[in-house]
């Protein structure tokens, strides 16, 4: 069955960097776009970034643009989220997800498989 497993979360200080990884199995990784979302306690799930199959097209939420970079390694069936200049407001559980073939890149409903999440906490 399809599995997405995130890793790389942790507790850091404001201004630090972290790289999240999401290893996929049970699917043909190279043919679907992949995305990252995040959800803070008491808040709705928030869009972060999307990368298309070849890696040549990426989209970002305004809140992370210029600080976060999404990338993928199709040979390893893994998508990454490099997070630089972290802020306390980036504290959330981060989820990777596989995008369906239709739907907008920023809507959670456009993604069909989700990982279990990785906690990122940024202290001030």
Strand content: over 45%
Roughly how many Å apart are the termini?
Answer: 40 Å
Structure class = mainly beta
The oligomeric status of these chains comes to: single chain
How would you spell out the order of helices and strands? EEEEEEEEEEE
Any low-confidence stretches, pLDDT <50, length ≥5?
none
Q: What composes the largest sheet? A: 7 strands, mixed
**Shape, please?**
globular
Helix coverage percent: under 10%
Average pLDDT metric = 96
Which value, in Å, is the CA radius of gyration? 13 Å
Count of discrete alpha- or pi-helical segments spanning 4 or more residues: 0
Question: How many strands appear in the DSSP assignment?
Answer: 11
Short note summarizing the structure:
Helices cover 0% and strands 50% of the residues.
